């Protein structure tokens, strides 16, 4: 974590990432794609995610979430910054000549060898089916559907833990605290993801959020009644009702999950009370 001399009010609280552990090389061009900005709009031009716009131009790095290069050893060539995610990425050179980017776990090092498949060693960065991973191991990039690619635990510093295996299912504790069942044939990668200090960055000034493509988030109480349920009133008010979205949906303590198909896979809900 880097700090600055407090020569201005913003600089006083301004911190930055330490990039000393990254390889000083340009990204691998065949794995880059253009990434046009959406401004929070869908294919009809309607805003579906508010307060998104601007930001620095980025190129998308194609990440291998599927880890389907089974049985082929790969060597870590570089560990790089990715502007599209909080975690670092690693460029892997496989023995068959293929090159791929993967999410970089905490203990991954340059020139280290990794592998995918049931026979792979239990080392940081390797990917195995859950049935081949020892109970208690920290894992990330966990598949929910075989062959679709990892979907769980992909952000900086996150990890899940394999806590049991029984029959066709493994029991996994997710970063949120939820405990759920996952099919043992699904792949997961070994280790905790790196760059855990990302959550401690102090952005320091509003402009730095604009560089990330985040526009100012307007409060409902600062609007007129026609624009938001919290709007209007004489002077500053609390809104006169429980917090809601502009469309009247509750925003605090309101459960939004509605997927009965997968309810049976959840053993313990996130933030569940002890003994409850």
Can you tell me the CATH class of the domain at 18-197? Answer: Mainly Beta
CATH fold title of the domain at 18-197: OB fold (Dihydrolipoamide Acetyltransferase, E2P)
Q: Could you spell the SSE succession in H and E letters?
A: EHEEEEEEEEEEEEEEEHE
Shape: globular
Number of helices: 2
CATH superfamily of the domain at 18-197: Nucleic acid-binding proteins
CATH architecture field of the domain at 18-197: Beta Barrel
The helix/strand class is mainly beta
What is Rg?
22 Å
Uncertain ranges:
none
Number of strands: 17
Strand order of the biggest β-sheet:
9-16-10-13-14-15-17
Straight-line distance between termini: 39 Å
Overview features:
mainly beta, OB fold (Dihydrolipoamide Acetyltransferase, E2P), 276 residues, 7-stranded antiparallel beta sheet, 17 strands, 2 helices
Describe the structure.
The chain has a seven-stranded antiparallel β-sheet with strand order 9-16-10-13-14-15-17, with no helix packed on it. It has a four-stranded antiparallel β-sheet with strand order 7-6-5-8, with no helix packed on it. The mean pLDDT is 93. The chain is mainly beta and 276 residues long. It has a domain at 18-197: Nucleic acid-binding proteins (OB fold (Dihydrolipoamide Acetyltransferase, E2P)). The two termini are 39 Å apart. The chain is built from two helices and 17 strands. It has helices at 9-12, 206-211; strands spanning 2-3, 15-16, 32-34, 59-61, 74-80, 89-94, 99-103, 113-114, 127-129, 138-140, 142-143, 150-152, 160-166, 169-173, 179-183, 187-190, 266-268. It is globular, with a radius of gyration of 22 Å. The chain is 4% helix and 24% strand.
